């Protein structure tokens, strides 16, 4: 059962559609999700909900050995601080965000040229089928299933399913797309079940942002 619409609306209004972790203004790329998952006894109460962008949501659920993961208490404090900043009118406006992004982009381009930072592939470097698989998976259940069956091949990505039977050309295209995502380290798995990597979420977020700007 999904979270009630009026509660989701309330959360998005209170954060003014800013991500409650990175505090960026992400009007069309926010997710309202549980701080304590339902499977662990979490409820749909407002106090157990937080709005985050796709990238930060991925980081929250990323397993790490060397750094400290986001705790439930920390996430609530981040959220409550964003609510306070919105109420006090202290969060940057969308235009201020854009100005900061331009300044940061120029600085980052200089740093990237002299560092070993991993640069994400561009949309032009990805196969169309790879994009069709990555984006819905990032917005859905965050797994990709590659299923081989008698005479057919199917890929389930989030809420999207791509299945072909007795069509070698289309089945081969799906396999190439999965292989490319794997080789580019955008997904990781065992050949049947894949999870989106951190870079995969970053790229999906970029692709969604570019798509929104083009509309």
Structural account:
- The chain has 215 residues and is of the alpha+beta class.
- The protein folds into 2 domains: 5-87, DNA Binding (I), subunit A (Orthogonal Bundle); 123-214, Arc Repressor Mutant, subunit A.
- The protein is 46% helix and 17% strand.
- The chain has 7 helices and 7 strands; from the N terminus they run αββααααβββαββα.
- Strands 5-4-3-7-6 form a 5-stranded antiparallel beta sheet.
- A hairpin with a 3-residue loop joins strand 6 and strand 7.
- Helix 2 (54-60) packs antiparallel against helix 7 (198-214), helix 5 (128-139) packs across helix 6 (168-183) and helix 5 crosses helix 7 (198-214).
- It is globular.
- The model has no long low-confidence stretch (mean pLDDT 82).
Please indicate the count of domains. Answer: 2
Strand content: 15-25%
Structural class: alpha+beta
CATH top-level class of the largest domain: Mainly Alpha
Strand order of the largest sheet: 5-4-3-7-6
How would you describe the shape?
A: globular
- If classified by CATH, what would the architecture of the largest domain be? Orthogonal Bundle
Distance between the termini: 31 Å
Cα radius of gyration in angstroms:
19 Å
Mean pLDDT reading: 82
State the helix count: 7
**What is the quaternary state of this protein?**
single chain
């Amino acid at each position: 059962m999904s979270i009630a619409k009026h509660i989701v609306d309330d959360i998005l209004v209170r954060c003014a559609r800013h991500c409650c972790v990175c505090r960026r203004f992400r009007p069309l790329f926010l997710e309202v999700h549980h701080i304590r998952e339902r499977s662990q006894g979490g409820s749909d109460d407002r106090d157990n909900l937080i709005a985050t962008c796709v990238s930060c949501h991925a980081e929250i659920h990323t397993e790490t050995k060397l750094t400290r993961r986001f705790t439930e208490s920390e996430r609530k404090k981040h959220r409550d601080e964003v609510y306070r900043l919105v109420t006090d009118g202290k969060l940057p406006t969308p235009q201020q965000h854009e100005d900061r992004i331009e300044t940061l982009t120029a600085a980052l381009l200089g740093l990237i040229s002299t560092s070993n930072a991993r640069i994400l592939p561009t949309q032009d470097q990805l196969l169309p089928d790879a994009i069709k698989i990555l984006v819905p998976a990032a917005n859905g259940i965050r797994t990709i299933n590659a299923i081989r069956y008698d005479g057919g091949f199917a890929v389930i990505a989030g809420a999207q399913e791509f299945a072909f039977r007795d069509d070698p050309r289309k089945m081969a295209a799906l396999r190439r797309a999965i292989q490319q995502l794997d080789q580019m380290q955008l997904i990781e798995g065992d050949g049947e079940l894949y999870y989106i990597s951190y870079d995969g979420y970053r790229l999906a977020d970029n692709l969604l942002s570019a798509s929104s700007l083009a509309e």
